[in-house]
Amino acid sequence: MPPGMGPPMQIPVNPAMQTLLDSLPHHPVPIFLANVQIPNSQPPQINTIAVCPEHKQSICEACGVDFNGLNYMHQFLRGAPDEAIPPPPNVQPPPQRAEMIKNMKEQGNTAFKEGKFPIAIQHYSKSADMALSRAPWELAAVSREETAIALCNRSAAFAIAGAWQNALADAEAVVALKRPWGKGHFRKARALLGLERLEDARQAIIDGLQFEPNDDVSPHFLHSSGSR
Amino acid sequence: MATSLIVPLAYISVLVTSLAIFSRVYRRRKAAAVKSWEPWFPKHPARDTYISLVTASQPDPSSSTPNQVPLSILKSALLVRATADVKRIWRIRDDKMALASLHNRGLVGDDTMARFAAAEKELEAEIVDVVSEANTFRQGWGQMIFQTATEMAQAERTREVVLNIPRVKVMEDRKLAHRRKYVPGPAVSHAATPVNTPAKPNAAAAITMAAANAITPSRQSPAPSLPDVEASPAEIKSGGSSGASTPAK
Protein backbone atom coordinates (compact mmCIF):
# COMPACT_ATOMS: atom_id res chain seq x y z
CA MET A 1 0.00 0.00 0.00
CA PRO A 2 1.45 3.31 -0.91
CA PRO A 3 2.29 5.11 2.26
CA GLY A 4 1.27 8.63 1.34
CA MET A 5 -1.55 10.05 -0.67
CA GLY A 6 -1.69 13.52 -2.11
CA PRO A 7 -4.84 15.01 -0.66
CA PRO A 8 -7.12 16.56 -3.25
CA MET A 9 -6.65 20.03 -1.93
CA GLN A 10 -8.07 22.33 -4.50
CA ILE A 11 -11.15 20.56 -5.75
CA PRO A 12 -13.72 23.22 -6.41
CA VAL A 13 -17.08 22.35 -4.99
CA ASN A 14 -19.38 22.28 -7.92
CA PRO A 15 -23.13 22.02 -7.48
CA ALA A 16 -23.21 18.43 -8.75
CA MET A 17 -20.84 17.39 -6.03
CA GLN A 18 -22.80 19.36 -3.51
CA THR A 19 -26.00 17.57 -4.42
CA LEU A 20 -24.19 14.27 -4.28
CA LEU A 21 -22.96 15.13 -0.82
CA ASP A 22 -26.38 16.04 0.35
CA SER A 23 -27.80 12.86 -1.05
CA LEU A 24 -25.46 10.64 0.95
CA PRO A 25 -27.48 8.89 3.58
CA HIS A 26 -27.00 9.94 7.12
CA HIS A 27 -28.16 7.88 10.05
CA PRO A 28 -28.08 9.76 13.32
CA VAL A 29 -25.96 8.05 15.92
CA PRO A 30 -27.11 8.04 19.54
CA ILE A 31 -24.32 9.57 21.48
CA PHE A 32 -24.02 10.86 24.96
CA LEU A 33 -21.02 12.59 26.46
CA ALA A 34 -20.32 11.41 29.96
CA ASN A 35 -17.98 13.19 32.33
CA VAL A 36 -16.01 10.74 34.37
CA GLN A 37 -13.38 11.50 36.87
CA ILE A 38 -9.94 10.23 36.24
CA PRO A 39 -8.90 8.16 39.22
CA ASN A 40 -5.71 9.02 41.07
CA SER A 41 -5.29 12.44 39.64
CA GLN A 42 -4.52 15.46 41.73
CA PRO A 43 -6.22 17.90 41.20
CA PRO A 44 -9.13 15.68 40.13
CA GLN A 45 -9.58 15.98 36.40
CA ILE A 46 -12.73 15.39 34.44
CA ASN A 47 -12.57 13.40 31.27
CA THR A 48 -15.30 13.53 28.68
CA ILE A 49 -15.94 10.23 26.97
CA ALA A 50 -18.51 9.33 24.38
CA VAL A 51 -20.89 6.56 25.37
CA CYS A 52 -24.19 5.23 24.18
CA PRO A 53 -27.13 6.85 25.94
CA GLU A 54 -28.90 3.74 27.20
CA HIS A 55 -26.16 1.47 28.40
CA LYS A 56 -23.40 3.98 29.02
CA GLN A 57 -20.86 1.83 27.23
CA SER A 58 -18.29 3.02 24.79
CA ILE A 59 -18.61 -0.13 22.72
CA CYS A 60 -22.22 -1.29 22.67
CA GLU A 61 -23.43 -4.17 20.56
CA ALA A 62 -27.08 -3.48 21.26
CA CYS A 63 -26.92 0.08 19.99
CA GLY A 64 -24.36 -0.81 17.34
CA VAL A 65 -21.87 1.90 18.28
CA ASP A 66 -18.14 1.84 18.75
CA PHE A 67 -16.65 4.97 20.25
CA ASN A 68 -13.28 3.59 21.24
CA GLY A 69 -11.42 5.32 18.44
CA LEU A 70 -13.05 8.59 19.32
CA ASN A 71 -12.25 8.28 23.00
CA TYR A 72 -8.69 7.22 22.34
CA MET A 73 -8.11 10.24 20.13
CA HIS A 74 -9.77 12.45 22.67
CA GLN A 75 -7.22 11.43 25.30
CA PHE A 76 -4.58 13.13 23.26
CA LEU A 77 -6.52 16.20 22.28
CA ARG A 78 -8.12 16.76 25.65
CA GLY A 79 -5.49 18.97 27.17
CA ALA A 80 -4.91 21.12 24.12
CA PRO A 81 -6.34 24.61 23.73
CA ASP A 82 -9.21 25.16 21.36
CA GLU A 83 -7.11 26.41 18.51
CA ALA A 84 -4.65 23.53 18.56
CA ILE A 85 -4.59 20.95 15.81
CA PRO A 86 -2.39 17.88 15.49
CA PRO A 87 0.88 18.81 13.79
CA PRO A 88 1.58 17.45 10.32
CA PRO A 89 3.68 14.31 10.24
CA ASN A 90 6.82 15.97 8.94
CA VAL A 91 7.21 17.89 12.19
CA GLN A 92 9.65 15.99 14.37
CA PRO A 93 8.37 15.13 17.82
CA PRO A 94 10.61 15.77 20.83
CA PRO A 95 13.12 12.95 21.04
CA GLN A 96 12.51 12.01 24.67
CA ARG A 97 10.14 9.26 23.74
CA ALA A 98 12.56 7.71 21.29
CA GLU A 99 15.25 7.89 23.96
CA MET A 100 13.06 6.15 26.49
CA ILE A 101 12.16 3.41 24.08
CA LYS A 102 15.78 2.86 23.19
CA ASN A 103 16.77 2.80 26.87
CA MET A 104 14.19 0.17 27.59
CA LYS A 105 15.50 -1.89 24.73
CA GLU A 106 19.08 -1.55 25.97
CA GLN A 107 18.04 -2.62 29.45
CA GLY A 108 16.37 -5.60 27.90
CA ASN A 109 19.58 -6.39 26.03
CA THR A 110 21.69 -6.28 29.17
CA ALA A 111 19.26 -8.53 31.00
CA PHE A 112 19.33 -10.88 28.02
CA LYS A 113 23.10 -11.09 28.06
CA GLU A 114 23.05 -11.82 31.76
CA GLY A 115 20.62 -14.63 31.18
CA LYS A 116 17.71 -13.12 33.12
CA PHE A 117 15.11 -13.84 30.53
CA PRO A 118 11.87 -12.91 32.34
CA ILE A 119 13.26 -9.48 33.07
CA ALA A 120 14.48 -9.10 29.52
CA ILE A 121 11.04 -10.03 28.26
CA GLN A 122 9.43 -7.49 30.52
CA HIS A 123 11.74 -4.76 29.32
CA TYR A 124 11.09 -5.59 25.70
CA SER A 125 7.36 -5.65 26.33
CA LYS A 126 7.56 -2.25 27.93
CA SER A 127 9.54 -0.92 25.02
CA ALA A 128 6.92 -2.21 22.60
CA ASP A 129 4.13 -0.67 24.72
CA MET A 130 5.82 2.70 24.70
CA ALA A 131 6.38 2.53 20.96
CA LEU A 132 2.70 1.82 20.47
CA SER A 133 1.40 4.52 22.74
CA ARG A 134 2.97 7.42 20.91
CA ALA A 135 0.67 10.15 19.69
CA PRO A 136 -1.17 8.81 16.66
CA TRP A 137 -0.36 11.70 14.38
CA GLU A 138 3.37 11.13 14.48
CA LEU A 139 5.15 9.33 11.71
CA ALA A 140 3.87 5.77 11.79
CA ALA A 141 6.97 4.25 10.22
CA VAL A 142 9.08 5.16 13.25
CA SER A 143 6.83 3.46 15.75
CA ARG A 144 6.58 0.48 13.44
CA GLU A 145 10.36 0.10 13.38
CA GLU A 146 10.65 0.36 17.13
CA THR A 147 7.88 -2.13 17.72
CA ALA A 148 9.38 -4.56 15.23
CA ILE A 149 12.80 -4.40 16.88
CA ALA A 150 11.37 -4.84 20.37
CA LEU A 151 9.23 -7.79 19.31
CA CYS A 152 12.12 -9.42 17.46
CA ASN A 153 14.29 -9.29 20.57
CA ARG A 154 11.45 -10.56 22.68
CA SER A 155 11.01 -13.46 20.32
CA ALA A 156 14.68 -14.30 20.74
CA ALA A 157 14.30 -14.20 24.52
CA PHE A 158 11.30 -16.48 24.39
CA ALA A 159 13.10 -18.86 22.11
CA ILE A 160 16.07 -19.18 24.43
CA ALA A 161 13.78 -19.61 27.40
CA GLY A 162 11.95 -22.36 25.58
CA ALA A 163 8.51 -20.79 25.20
CA TRP A 164 8.21 -21.59 21.52
CA GLN A 165 4.61 -20.59 21.00
CA ASN A 166 5.24 -17.12 22.35
CA ALA A 167 8.35 -16.87 20.21
CA LEU A 168 6.38 -17.89 17.16
CA ALA A 169 3.58 -15.43 17.87
CA ASP A 170 6.09 -12.60 18.23
CA ALA A 171 8.00 -13.63 15.13
CA GLU A 172 4.79 -13.74 13.11
CA ALA A 173 4.03 -10.20 14.24
CA VAL A 174 7.51 -9.06 13.27
CA VAL A 175 7.12 -10.56 9.81
CA ALA A 176 3.73 -8.91 9.45
CA LEU A 177 5.16 -5.54 10.42
CA LYS A 178 8.37 -5.68 8.43
CA ARG A 179 8.26 -8.27 5.72
CA PRO A 180 11.52 -7.40 3.93
CA TRP A 181 13.57 -7.95 7.09
CA GLY A 182 15.64 -11.11 7.08
CA LYS A 183 15.94 -11.34 10.83
CA GLY A 184 12.20 -11.57 11.31
CA HIS A 185 12.04 -14.66 9.15
CA PHE A 186 15.02 -16.07 10.93
CA ARG A 187 13.30 -15.74 14.29
CA LYS A 188 10.21 -17.36 12.88
CA ALA A 189 12.25 -20.28 11.61
CA ARG A 190 13.93 -20.63 14.99
CA ALA A 191 10.58 -20.78 16.76
CA LEU A 192 9.18 -23.24 14.25
CA LEU A 193 12.20 -25.42 14.72
CA GLY A 194 11.57 -25.42 18.43
CA LEU A 195 8.06 -26.56 17.72
CA GLU A 196 9.42 -29.41 15.55
CA ARG A 197 7.86 -28.07 12.39
CA LEU A 198 10.83 -28.52 10.13
CA GLU A 199 9.19 -27.92 6.76
CA ASP A 200 7.67 -24.64 7.91
CA ALA A 201 11.02 -23.60 9.32
CA ARG A 202 12.74 -24.27 6.00
CA GLN A 203 10.05 -22.28 4.23
CA ALA A 204 10.54 -19.37 6.58
CA ILE A 205 14.29 -19.41 5.98
CA ILE A 206 13.72 -19.45 2.24
CA ASP A 207 11.37 -16.47 2.54
CA GLY A 208 14.01 -14.62 4.51
CA LEU A 209 16.67 -15.40 1.96
CA GLN A 210 14.44 -13.98 -0.76
CA PHE A 211 14.71 -10.60 0.84
CA GLU A 212 18.30 -10.74 2.00
CA PRO A 213 20.26 -13.03 -0.27
CA ASN A 214 23.57 -12.06 1.29
CA ASP A 215 22.76 -13.44 4.65
CA ASP A 216 25.13 -16.19 5.67
CA VAL A 217 23.71 -17.11 9.04
CA SER A 218 20.46 -18.44 7.66
CA PRO A 219 21.82 -21.00 5.21
CA HIS A 220 24.01 -22.42 7.93
CA PHE A 221 20.96 -22.71 10.12
CA LEU A 222 19.11 -24.36 7.25
CA HIS A 223 21.78 -27.00 6.81
CA SER A 224 22.07 -27.74 10.48
CA SER A 225 18.32 -28.14 10.72
CA GLY A 226 18.25 -30.28 7.60
CA SER A 227 20.68 -32.70 9.09
CA ARG A 228 18.11 -33.92 11.63
CA MET B 1 -61.85 20.38 -43.97
CA ALA B 2 -58.17 19.60 -43.45
CA THR B 3 -57.01 23.13 -44.03
CA SER B 4 -57.98 24.25 -40.50
CA LEU B 5 -55.21 24.90 -37.99
CA ILE B 6 -56.50 22.32 -35.56
CA VAL B 7 -55.07 19.27 -37.27
CA PRO B 8 -51.36 20.13 -37.27
CA LEU B 9 -51.64 21.55 -33.79
CA ALA B 10 -53.33 18.44 -32.55
CA TYR B 11 -50.68 16.33 -34.23
CA ILE B 12 -47.84 18.27 -32.66
CA SER B 13 -49.41 18.27 -29.22
CA VAL B 14 -50.06 14.54 -29.29
CA LEU B 15 -46.49 13.95 -30.40
CA VAL B 16 -44.98 16.13 -27.72
CA THR B 17 -47.19 14.69 -25.00
CA SER B 18 -46.35 11.13 -25.85
CA LEU B 19 -42.65 11.88 -25.97
CA ALA B 20 -42.84 13.67 -22.63
CA ILE B 21 -44.65 10.80 -21.00
CA PHE B 22 -42.21 8.31 -22.41
CA SER B 23 -39.19 10.28 -21.26
CA ARG B 24 -40.59 10.73 -17.75
CA VAL B 25 -41.36 7.04 -17.36
CA TYR B 26 -37.98 6.04 -18.76
CA ARG B 27 -36.05 8.36 -16.50
CA ARG B 28 -37.95 7.26 -13.47
CA ARG B 29 -37.15 3.64 -14.26
CA LYS B 30 -33.50 4.50 -14.76
CA ALA B 31 -33.35 6.42 -11.47
CA ALA B 32 -35.04 3.57 -9.67
CA ALA B 33 -32.45 1.17 -11.07
CA VAL B 34 -29.65 3.40 -9.82
CA LYS B 35 -31.16 3.68 -6.35
CA SER B 36 -31.75 -0.01 -6.05
CA TRP B 37 -28.04 -0.76 -6.24
CA GLU B 38 -26.45 -1.85 -3.06
CA PRO B 39 -23.92 0.76 -2.00
CA TRP B 40 -20.32 -0.31 -2.20
CA PHE B 41 -19.56 0.32 1.47
CA PRO B 42 -22.21 -0.72 3.96
CA LYS B 43 -22.17 2.32 6.15
CA HIS B 44 -19.90 5.00 7.46
CA PRO B 45 -20.25 5.19 11.24
CA ALA B 46 -17.50 7.76 11.68
CA ARG B 47 -19.29 10.18 9.39
CA ASP B 48 -22.60 9.64 11.13
CA THR B 49 -20.98 10.19 14.51
CA TYR B 50 -19.40 13.41 13.38
CA ILE B 51 -22.59 14.79 11.89
CA SER B 52 -24.59 13.83 14.98
CA LEU B 53 -22.08 15.60 17.18
CA VAL B 54 -22.11 18.69 15.02
CA THR B 55 -25.88 18.87 15.03
CA ALA B 56 -25.88 18.34 18.78
CA SER B 57 -23.47 21.18 19.21
CA GLN B 58 -25.39 23.67 17.11
CA PRO B 59 -26.48 26.49 19.37
CA ASP B 60 -30.15 25.96 19.84
CA PRO B 61 -31.95 29.27 19.87
CA SER B 62 -34.97 27.87 21.68
CA SER B 63 -33.15 26.33 24.60
CA SER B 64 -31.03 28.31 26.94
CA THR B 65 -28.34 25.74 27.65
CA PRO B 66 -24.98 26.65 26.17
CA ASN B 67 -23.07 24.51 23.73
CA GLN B 68 -22.38 21.23 25.50
CA VAL B 69 -20.06 19.53 23.07
CA PRO B 70 -16.43 20.46 23.65
CA LEU B 71 -14.40 21.38 20.63
CA SER B 72 -11.83 18.67 21.32
CA ILE B 73 -14.50 16.01 20.88
CA LEU B 74 -15.49 17.48 17.54
CA LYS B 75 -11.89 17.53 16.40
CA SER B 76 -11.40 13.93 17.51
CA ALA B 77 -14.54 12.91 15.65
CA LEU B 78 -13.32 14.63 12.53
CA LEU B 79 -9.95 12.90 12.78
CA VAL B 80 -11.63 9.54 13.23
CA ARG B 81 -13.78 10.27 10.21
CA ALA B 82 -10.72 11.20 8.16
CA THR B 83 -8.96 8.00 9.23
CA ALA B 84 -11.95 5.92 8.14
CA ASP B 85 -11.90 7.74 4.81
CA VAL B 86 -8.20 6.99 4.34
CA LYS B 87 -8.89 3.30 4.93
CA ARG B 88 -11.65 3.48 2.34
CA ILE B 89 -9.30 5.14 -0.11
CA TRP B 90 -6.90 2.24 0.30
CA ARG B 91 -9.67 -0.26 -0.25
CA ILE B 92 -10.98 1.55 -3.30
CA ARG B 93 -7.52 1.61 -4.81
CA ASP B 94 -7.09 -2.11 -4.35
CA ASP B 95 -10.57 -2.83 -5.58
CA LYS B 96 -10.03 -0.65 -8.63
CA MET B 97 -7.10 -2.70 -9.86
CA ALA B 98 -8.85 -5.96 -9.11
CA LEU B 99 -12.07 -4.88 -10.77
CA ALA B 100 -10.31 -3.58 -13.87
CA SER B 101 -8.63 -6.90 -14.48
CA LEU B 102 -11.79 -8.85 -13.72
CA HIS B 103 -13.81 -6.64 -16.00
CA ASN B 104 -11.32 -7.13 -18.79
CA ARG B 105 -11.80 -10.83 -18.51
CA GLY B 106 -15.53 -10.41 -18.50
CA LEU B 107 -16.13 -11.93 -15.09
CA VAL B 108 -17.72 -8.83 -13.70
CA GLY B 109 -20.63 -7.02 -15.24
CA ASP B 110 -21.16 -3.42 -16.11
CA ASP B 111 -23.50 -2.76 -13.24
CA THR B 112 -20.75 -3.65 -10.78
CA MET B 113 -18.46 -1.21 -12.53
CA ALA B 114 -21.18 1.40 -12.32
CA ARG B 115 -21.60 0.74 -8.59
CA PHE B 116 -17.89 1.07 -8.12
CA ALA B 117 -17.77 4.33 -10.05
CA ALA B 118 -20.60 5.67 -7.92
CA ALA B 119 -18.70 4.68 -4.78
CA GLU B 120 -15.59 6.48 -6.03
CA LYS B 121 -17.58 9.63 -6.64
CA GLU B 122 -19.13 9.47 -3.22
CA LEU B 123 -15.74 9.03 -1.62
CA GLU B 124 -14.45 12.06 -3.47
CA ALA B 125 -17.37 14.12 -2.29
CA GLU B 126 -16.79 12.85 1.23
CA ILE B 127 -13.11 13.86 1.12
CA VAL B 128 -13.99 17.34 -0.07
CA ASP B 129 -16.50 17.58 2.74
CA VAL B 130 -13.93 16.57 5.35
CA VAL B 131 -11.44 19.09 4.03
CA SER B 132 -13.96 21.88 4.19
CA GLU B 133 -15.03 20.90 7.70
CA ALA B 134 -11.40 20.87 8.78
CA ASN B 135 -11.00 24.36 7.44
CA THR B 136 -13.82 25.54 9.66
CA PHE B 137 -11.83 24.59 12.73
CA ARG B 138 -8.71 26.28 11.56
CA GLN B 139 -7.89 27.78 8.25
CA GLY B 140 -5.36 25.60 6.48
CA TRP B 141 -5.97 22.47 8.48
CA GLY B 142 -7.75 20.91 5.51
CA GLN B 143 -4.47 20.56 3.65
CA MET B 144 -2.82 18.65 6.44
CA ILE B 145 -5.64 16.61 7.82
CA PHE B 146 -5.31 13.84 5.30
CA GLN B 147 -1.59 13.49 5.86
CA THR B 148 -2.28 13.22 9.58
CA ALA B 149 -5.07 10.73 8.91
CA THR B 150 -2.80 8.56 6.76
CA GLU B 151 -0.28 8.33 9.57
CA MET B 152 -3.05 7.52 12.02
CA ALA B 153 -4.42 4.77 9.83
CA GLN B 154 -0.97 3.18 9.53
CA ALA B 155 -0.47 3.41 13.27
CA GLU B 156 -3.78 1.65 13.71
CA ARG B 157 -2.62 -1.14 11.47
CA THR B 158 0.53 -1.58 13.56
CA ARG B 159 -1.53 -1.65 16.72
CA GLU B 160 -3.84 -4.28 15.28
CA VAL B 161 -0.90 -6.52 14.45
CA VAL B 162 0.48 -6.25 17.95
CA LEU B 163 -2.85 -6.81 19.64
CA ASN B 164 -3.30 -9.89 17.50
CA ILE B 165 -0.27 -11.54 19.09
CA PRO B 166 -2.09 -13.16 22.04
CA ARG B 167 -4.64 -14.63 19.67
CA VAL B 168 -1.90 -16.13 17.54
CA LYS B 169 -0.35 -17.53 20.69
CA VAL B 170 -3.59 -19.25 21.70
CA MET B 171 -3.92 -20.75 18.25
CA GLU B 172 -0.37 -22.04 18.36
CA ASP B 173 -1.07 -23.58 21.75
CA ARG B 174 -4.02 -25.39 20.30
CA LYS B 175 -2.06 -26.55 17.29
CA LEU B 176 0.70 -27.88 19.48
CA ALA B 177 -1.72 -29.70 21.76
CA HIS B 178 -3.33 -31.23 18.72
CA ARG B 179 0.02 -32.28 17.32
CA ARG B 180 1.09 -33.84 20.58
CA LYS B 181 -1.76 -36.28 20.34
CA TYR B 182 -0.32 -37.79 17.20
CA VAL B 183 3.38 -36.99 17.29
CA PRO B 184 4.67 -37.46 20.79
CA GLY B 185 8.13 -36.18 20.29
CA PRO B 186 11.02 -36.07 22.71
CA ALA B 187 10.49 -32.35 22.71
CA VAL B 188 7.39 -32.67 24.86
CA SER B 189 9.09 -31.35 27.94
CA HIS B 190 11.08 -28.59 26.43
CA ALA B 191 8.18 -26.94 24.73
CA ALA B 192 6.34 -24.70 27.10
CA THR B 193 3.87 -26.75 29.09
CA PRO B 194 0.29 -25.49 28.82
CA VAL B 195 0.47 -21.92 29.71
CA ASN B 196 -2.33 -20.02 31.28
CA THR B 197 -2.68 -17.01 29.11
CA PRO B 198 -5.43 -14.65 30.19
CA ALA B 199 -8.66 -15.26 28.36
CA LYS B 200 -9.22 -11.76 27.07
CA PRO B 201 -5.93 -10.08 26.57
CA ASN B 202 -6.82 -6.65 25.41
CA ALA B 203 -4.04 -4.40 26.53
CA ALA B 204 -0.40 -4.79 25.77
CA ALA B 205 0.14 -5.16 29.51
CA ALA B 206 -1.60 -8.48 29.22
CA ILE B 207 1.07 -9.53 26.77
CA THR B 208 3.62 -8.96 29.47
CA MET B 209 1.58 -11.01 31.90
CA ALA B 210 1.21 -13.77 29.37
CA ALA B 211 4.92 -13.66 28.80
CA ALA B 212 5.69 -13.94 32.47
CA ASN B 213 3.24 -16.80 32.87
CA ALA B 214 4.49 -18.53 29.81
CA ILE B 215 8.06 -19.03 30.72
CA THR B 216 7.75 -19.97 34.35
CA PRO B 217 6.53 -23.51 33.63
CA SER B 218 9.36 -24.19 31.25
CA ARG B 219 11.90 -23.02 33.77
CA GLN B 220 10.53 -25.42 36.30
CA SER B 221 10.32 -28.40 34.02
CA PRO B 222 12.90 -31.13 34.62
CA ALA B 223 16.48 -30.29 33.85
CA PRO B 224 17.61 -33.04 31.46
CA SER B 225 15.44 -31.73 28.68
CA LEU B 226 16.70 -28.17 28.93
CA PRO B 227 20.43 -28.50 28.70
CA ASP B 228 20.54 -25.99 25.91
CA VAL B 229 18.96 -23.21 27.93
CA GLU B 230 21.41 -23.27 30.78
CA ALA B 231 24.47 -24.40 28.90
CA SER B 232 24.46 -22.19 25.87
CA PRO B 233 26.12 -18.83 26.10
CA ALA B 234 23.70 -16.02 25.94
CA GLU B 235 23.18 -14.91 22.39
CA ILE B 236 24.08 -11.46 21.44
CA LYS B 237 21.10 -9.52 20.22
CA SER B 238 22.45 -9.14 16.74
CA GLY B 239 21.26 -12.64 16.04
CA GLY B 240 24.22 -14.88 16.42
CA SER B 241 23.83 -18.27 14.88
CA SER B 242 21.68 -20.53 16.93
CA GLY B 243 23.85 -23.51 16.32
CA ALA B 244 24.94 -23.55 19.92
CA SER B 245 21.45 -23.48 21.31
CA THR B 246 19.72 -26.10 19.24
CA PRO B 247 18.06 -28.56 21.58
CA ALA B 248 19.95 -31.70 22.15
CA LYS B 249 18.22 -34.76 20.87
Automatic annotation (TrEMBL), chain A:
Enumerate the GO terms in the molecular function aspect: Hsp90 protein binding
Write down the Gene3D superfamilies for this protein, in alphabetical order. Answer: Tetratricopeptide repeat domain
In its UniProt entry, the species of origin is given as Kockovaella imperatae
UniProt keywords (A-Z) are:
Repeat, TPR repeat
Residues making up the signal peptide according to the UniProt record: none
Kindly provide the name given to this protein in its UniProt entry. Translocation protein SEC72
Instruction: Indicate whether Repeat appears among the record's keywords.
Output: yes
UniProtKB/TrEMBL annotation, chain B:
BP terms from Gene Ontology = post-translational protein targeting to membrane, translocation
Q: Does the keyword Flavoprotein apply?
A: no
Location of region: Disordered? 215-249
> Can you tell me where the transmembrane regions are?
6-26
Any one of the GO CC terms:
Sec62/Sec63 complex
Q: Record's Pfam families?
A: Sec66 (PF09802)
Top-rank taxon of the source lineage equals: Eukaryota
**Keywords for the protein's UniProt record, in alphabetical order:** Membrane, Transmembrane, Transmembrane helix
* Transmembrane listed as a keyword: yes
Q: What is this protein called?
A: Pre protein translocase subunit Sec66-domain-containing protein
What is the organism of origin for this protein? Kockovaella imperatae
